[in-house]
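Dear H.,

Thanks for agreeing to be a second pair of eyes. The structure we're designing against is below in token form, covering all 470 positions.
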């Protein structure tokens, strides 16, 4: 049974309710349009040069009619100190495995694990009788070489004296030739004079023969003298050669002395290897033999060291710096190290050395921090954390990250600033951000009051009551 009134057609009955509902919704749409228009005019003024233009609304009140209160903060100078915090392991600054260079029985060992030693202390001694005999033999051969060198030097003196004698003999025989030449000339002159007298029958023939014999004798004497000179010169040449030979023998003997000295030094070095000395001040951390044990030389296949000594007055902390911080890490950067086993104590030092090369697998760079360890709290193998200062504080302004309302791109943002009691939106250029603070490179000044938080929603152009954050 239909409920339609009599006298009204069906289409008319359906159209009237729809038209009626449309007229009812029209006032609602008008109200929404007015609200939107007012919001656009008062809340989103045109921005010019990084600052917003105040809207037409002079102020906005809270529900109870009071001016909104906002908490503001002034930018702080100093920038953000960039640090990298990485795990680090403690290592001894120096660690040495002490091997034996000679084979023999361990004669004595005055230290054990944990013994503190000084540089040069005798730690262990190996019994090496063969090396002792080698030293004695080398010493005897050195004495022998020195004696031969003395003999060679004396021989030089002897042959040099022979050379001088030969020189004198040559000079003497040459002088004899001059005398004999003069005698020959005299004999020839007398013979000529006697012969002239004989021709005049003034002297007998026997006198002529005597003078002729005198001339022949003078000639023979001259000839003999000249042969004697040649013999003396030959002897002189031989003496000179023997002098040179003797000098060469001296050089050879001196070289033999040096060889013998080197052999003695080598023998002493080999014998010295039997004494194991501390290379620096430190502590013994490892012992592998006891007195009476046979120790094989490292050069003969010995694989175990007698002792291990480490330096503990200075330690090095090894840190692996990740790729993002590698370029900022340099020797001299300040570092603070905390060790899990020591509690909250901080050990301050500096980056001493960097590898300047990254590990291809981990993409990290080895960095070492040197730490003084006068009270010996730091031990080999300890583990902790190292905080390395990569960039020092600067003159840039910083704000809490909560002050930045909008971020466009990596370095652009917007903050709210209270000027003359009204809120303005200001574009700023952002710098480093550590999650708590952010650096502001430009856009605001140190005396600007930047909104940190408010107890109500605020819009640009609103009158507010700023309160500096404590």
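And this is the sequence the design step returned. I haven't edited it by hand at all.
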């Amino acid at each position: 049974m239909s409920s339609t009134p009599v006298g009204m057609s069906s289409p008319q009955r359906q159209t009237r309710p729809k038209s009626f509902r449309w007229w009812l919704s029209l006032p609602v749409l008008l109200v929404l349009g007015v609200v939107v228009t007012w919001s656009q005019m008062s809340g989103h003024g045109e921005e010019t040069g990084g600052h917003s233009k105040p809207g037409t609304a002079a102020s906005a009140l809270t529900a109870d009619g009071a001016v909104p209160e906002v908490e503001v903060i002034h930018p702080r100078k100093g920038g953000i100190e960039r640090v990298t915090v990485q795990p680090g392991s403690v290592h001894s600054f120096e660690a040495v495995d002490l091997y034996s260079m000679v084979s023999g029985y361990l004669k004595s060992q005055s230290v054990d694990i944990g013994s503190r030693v000084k540089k040069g202390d005798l730690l262990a001694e190996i019994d090496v009788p063969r090396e002792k005999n080698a030293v004695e033999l080398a010493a005897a051969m050195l004495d022998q070489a020195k004696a031969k060198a003395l003999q060679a030097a004396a021989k030089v003196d002897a042959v040099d004296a022979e050379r001088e004698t030969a020189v004198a003999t040559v000079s003497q025989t040459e002088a004899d030739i001059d005398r004999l030449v003069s005698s020959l000339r005299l004999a020839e002159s007398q013979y000529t004079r006697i012969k002239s007298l004989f021709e005049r029958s003034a002297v007998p023939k026997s006198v002529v023969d005597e003078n002729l014999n005198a001339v022949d004798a003078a000639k023979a004497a001259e000839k003999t003298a000249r042969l004697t000179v040649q013999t003396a010169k030959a002897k002189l040449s031989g003496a000179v050669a023997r002098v040179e030979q003797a000098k060469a023998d001296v050089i050879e003997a001196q070289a033999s002395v040096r060889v013998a000295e080197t052999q003695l030094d080598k023998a002493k070095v080999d014998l010295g290897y039997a004494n194991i000395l501390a290379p620096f001040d430190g502590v013994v951390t490892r012992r592998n033999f006891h007195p009476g044990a046979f120790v094989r030389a490292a050069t003969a296949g010995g694989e175990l060291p007698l002792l291990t000594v480490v330096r503990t007055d200075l330690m090095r902390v090894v840190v692996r710096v990740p790729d993002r911080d590698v370029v900022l890490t340099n020797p001299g950067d300040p570092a603070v190290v905390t060790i899990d086993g020591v509690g909250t104590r901080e050990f301050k030092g500096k980056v001493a050395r960097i590898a300047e090369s990254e590990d291809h697998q981990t993409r990290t760079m080895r960095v070492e921090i040197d730490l003084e360890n006068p009270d010996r709290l730091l031990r080999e193998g300890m583990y902790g954390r190292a905080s390395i200062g990569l960039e020092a504080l600067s003159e840039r302004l910083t704000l809490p990250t909560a002050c930045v309302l909008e971020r466009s791109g990596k370095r652009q943002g917007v903050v709210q600033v209270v000027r003359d009691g009204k809120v303005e939106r200001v574009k700023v250029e952002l710098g480093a951000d550590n999650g708590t603070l952010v650096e502001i490179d430009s856009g605001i000044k140190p005396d600007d009051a930047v909104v940190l938080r408010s107890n109500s929603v605020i819009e640009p152009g609103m009158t507010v009551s700023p309160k500096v954050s404590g």
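Two observations from my side: The first helix runs from residue 10 to 43. The helical segments are 10-43, 129-199, 205-272, 323-326.

Warmly,
E.
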